[in-house]
Amino acid sequence: MPSFTYYAPTKVVFGRDAENDTGKLVREFGGKNVLVIFGGESAKKSGLLDRISYCLSAEGIRFTQIGGVVPNPRLSKVYECIDVCREENIDFILSVGGGSVIDTAKATAYGVPYAGDVWDFYCGKAVPKKAMPMGCVLTIAAAGSEMSNSSVITNEDGWLKRGYKNDLSRQRFAVMNPELTYTLPPAQTANGIIDIMMHTMERYFSRERDLFVTDEIAEGLLRSVMRSAFTLKYEPANYDARASLMWASSLSHNGLTGCGLCEDWATHQIEHELSGMFDCAHAPGLSAVWGSWARYVMDADYSRFAQFARQVMEVGGENDDREAAELGIAAFEDFCRSIDMPTNIRELGYKLTDSQIDELAEKCTFFGTRTVGAFKKLNCDDIAAIYRAARG
User: Fold this and answer.
1) Confidence (pLDDT) at 61
2) Statement: residue 1 has pLDDT above 80
3) Is 185 exposed, middle or buried, given 0-12, 13-18 or 19+ CB atoms closer than 10 A?
4) By three-state DSSP, how is residue 20 classified?
5) Do 144 and 102 touch, CB atoms closer than 8 A?
6) What is the value of pTM for the model shown?
7) Close Cβ partners of 313 (under 8 Å, ≥ 6 residues apart)
């Protein structure tokens, strides 16, 4: 087994009514004057923001609220949050929502103590020296940002979507009550399922060997997510399925399923440019391009895809590795369709032109200055070929 470092410092408070401990947790981690960041109206209409406000007030904690965070979170909202933090002398940031809200908080936390433009971190011009402390109340099982060191922000100037990783952005705590996800529309639940699986699969598709424990954790997590998906299709308020999905969200992206592996992340990079150009939801973009990526790279190691087919998708047991690999990819696409997720870009709702494909590939490679992926390194021509195959 290769050497690795595993770091997951976030305190998790999980279960029914867990959000009622939010005020005490903020106080525990030194918060006295808090910025509460949230997304749309659902946090208000559900009464969740009122409950959070009560918990904070009960601990004598001042707070300011900012809503309006959207999917593919915007740099302009980050700038707004930074300004408020400075004006109000905020000392702690609390996210109430899913990955977009938490990512906005992470970028804000970098930006407040920094004299320059926070976008410097996302475009590789600078490295943060410090960040504000943060915690979150999770309302969507999907992105895993509640326990990861990563965030993704979209810059409206050029519609560039860029990610950044730094342990300074680790949440001090993550509050997870599966009941908060009961009212999610089926499409959002499906998006979360794909997001969780892709975070695991970006790590799983590695050419490292003899990582039996890491592999079995990842394979078991993927199987459990699919079981939850089938249950929630017919029982959207099934607590055990919601709880399994919420915990899987965190485990998929806190580094556990990548211990000892050389991670890939090409599918994410390819999708980021789609959602940057079209502002489509992240998870459908991932499912739309994954099959084309998989077929393009599988010849680098058929056995890995065959293992995925046999251990996760439960197909290909009697076939050779190449045949099993193809069956496993097709089976995953069938699973995506079963939860109404697209498997090509046309199904996503877009008809890519050749010039758009060229632009997407150029942006994905940072205008020809990098390759993406590790399972098979992909240059601009490779990425363009994947977009063409995924066009549908």
Assistant:
1) 98
2) no
3) exposed
4) helix
5) no
6) 0.95
7) 327, 328, 331, 332, 335
Query: What 3 state SS string does 116-155 have?
Result: CCCHHHHCCCCCCCCCCCEEEEECCCCCCCCCCCEEEEEE
Q: How many CA atoms lie within 13 A of 314 on its CB side?
A: 6
Could you report the per-residue pLDDT of 337-385, keeping only the tens digit for each?
999 999 999 999 999 999 999 999 999 999 999 999 999 999 999 999 9
- At 335-347, the pLDDT tens digits run 999 999 999 999 9
The distance from CA 183 to its chain's CA centroid, rounded to whole angstroms, is: 20
Alpha-carbon radius of gyration of the chain: 20
Q: 3-class SS at 89?
A: coil
The pLDDT value recorded for residue 42 is 87
Which are the contacts of 334, defined by CB distance < 8 A and separation ≥ 6?
Answer: none
pLDDT at 392: 92
Q: Which amino acid is at 335?
A: F
* Neighbouring-strand partners of residue 130: none
pLDDT digits (tens, 9 = 90+) for 119-141: 999 999 999 999 999 999 999 99
Is residue 357 within 8 Å of residue 388, measured between CB atoms?
A: yes
In angstroms, the Cα distances linking 107 to 102, 151, 152, 277, 303 are 9, 7, 9, 21, 39
The average confidence (pLDDT) of the chain is 96
Alpha carbon distances (Å) from 161 to 196, 223, 273: 20, 30, 7
What's the token pair of residue 151?
């965030």
| pLDDT at 49 exceeding the cut of 90 | yes
Q: What is the residue whose two structure tokens read 């299709």?
A: 233
